[in-house]
């Protein structure tokens, strides 16, 4: 029997208790799509990260309750900046770099999209409420799986091809957003206030996609979220098949 593709997910850290943690929904969505979730500890050591990532078939970058350190994209901290967890930033960036070297497919969610953009030389809007006039509400609160605003999808994009409509209703839990777009990334979805809600790597030889909303929340009832996770895991499965073919030659 062909093994499931292993999808690495960097954990998050609870600073007051020094505990690594991860919301259950990321792993459950990956498992339901046919993958095997593997948690990556926040140990910002390149040798450790490489030793884990080289055994994987894909990377999922999850959300976080902290912000990317603005010094990493050449800015001073704004008054609206949230907490910063250097151990998480560094491990995520090492994971992204390793995924690129090993050619792994990558799906990034919320904070994951923001740190991906920074890793490619892009910048962030540090606080939407104070820096974006007439912005829609991007921090909806509970219930977290409730869809609260629309995004317009680029129909020719990877995400657009997964959707039955270019006008997608999504949940929203972020106070920061992508500003300038990083290298080899293009915007593929926008909210009504003009903020970028998704980015993708347009190169055809890889799967790199990121969304600002949380498809892992309510994925059991949301067909688009299911298709997104299945598409990602399916791409990772190609690596499994390729390795099996190489082993039998």
Structure description:
This protein is 31% helix and 21% strand. It is of the alpha/beta class and 249 residues long. It starts with 5 loop residues before the first strand and ends with a helix. The strands form three sheets. It has a nine-stranded mixed β-sheet with strand order 4-1-5-6-13-12-11-8-9, with helices on both faces. The protein has a two-stranded antiparallel ribbon with strand order 2-3. The protein has a two-stranded antiparallel ribbon with strand order 7-10. Helix 2 packs across helix 3 (86-102).
Secondary structure category: alpha/beta
Shape: globular
Number of strands: 13
* Secondary structure tally, helices: 7
- Order of strands in the sheet with the most strands? 4-1-5-6-13-12-11-8-9
Could you report the average pLDDT, rounded to the nearest whole number? 95
Biggest pleated-sheet summary: 9 strands, mixed
Low-confidence stretches: none
Helix content: 25-40%
* Measured distance between first and last alpha carbons: 18 Å
Keywords:
single chain, alpha/beta, two-stranded antiparallel ribbon, 13 strands
Describe the structure concisely for a colleague.
The protein is α/β, with parallel strands linked by helices and 249 residues long. It has helices at residues 24-32, 46-53, 86-102, 111-119, 128-131, 158-162, 223-248, and strands spanning 6-10, 12-14, 19-21, 36-40, 58-61, 106-109, 124-125, 149-153, 167-170, 177-178, 186-191, 196-200, 208-211. α3 links the parallel β5 and β6.
